């Protein structure tokens, strides 16, 4: 993990490449596919039969790249398809599995210029869940870099989450965004969850509201959205009442969604504490260990007994 605090960077992934994080990313990928009703790593609008050069940015454990390499349309053409995967933290990239599948991996910060040999060669670029990594300037640079990497008419596929949580049936978002003060200020466990999770995102100048901000950002970078879908997701008990885009139940993901949030908060809270930004609610700094433990216990119980909903979206955009 980088030693600088997130606020000093345009791009930074704060979660270490430990086994728990690798397991979390796998479960997150599986649940995300269930939410969108995908049985393969790309939506139907993307034609894999003619795709030759693919890049997975922020690849992490390379689960998407591995899934793509094993997709029938790609597997039968493996000698013709070049799959690349990069991450800001090379320690999390799995060298053995990727080598077996011919996936070429390299270290790369998406906000920094990519090697010139990659410019203009990719038919498909994939990015996922970078809302926890990039500032507004970081996003603008990242999307400009993606456009540079794409071949004429090439596609970028990306999915993101709005890190603001609501009780079931209480979803509130205007055309211009969320009332973050209202979301974080209150006495309920969900206000405390937002104070920690949304507060971390806001405090480090990462973006909230990518599900509605990205189309314009993509357009400015020279990429036009050709397909998208906005879906309701969740954490904890409420997940049991949600269905994916294909109508299947998301109930199998109740427990893993709670574990996911617990692990993320276990990374966020120490950073916020060190930076002096651990405030629940905003303006009320939390210092005592017993108070922190009490807040986390209340959040966990709330997720177990009630659960929370949130909004995610995927976009496929074409180089103009």
TrEMBL record:
Keywords annotated in UniProt: Methyltransferase, Transferase
InterPro entries tied to this protein: SAM-dependent_MTases_sf
Pfam family, one: Methyltransf_23
GO molecular function annotation: methyltransferase activity
Transferase among keywords: yes
Swiss-Prot/TrEMBL GO biological process terms: methylation
SUPFAM superfamilies noted in UniProt: S-adenosyl-L-methionine-dependent methyltransferases (SSF53335)
Record-linked Gene3D superfamilies: Vaccinia Virus protein VP39 (3.40.50.150)
UniProt keyword Transferase, yes or no: yes
Protein name: S-adenosyl-L-methionine-dependent methyltransferase
Source species taxonomy: Eukaryota, Fungi, Dikarya, Basidiomycota, Agaricomycotina
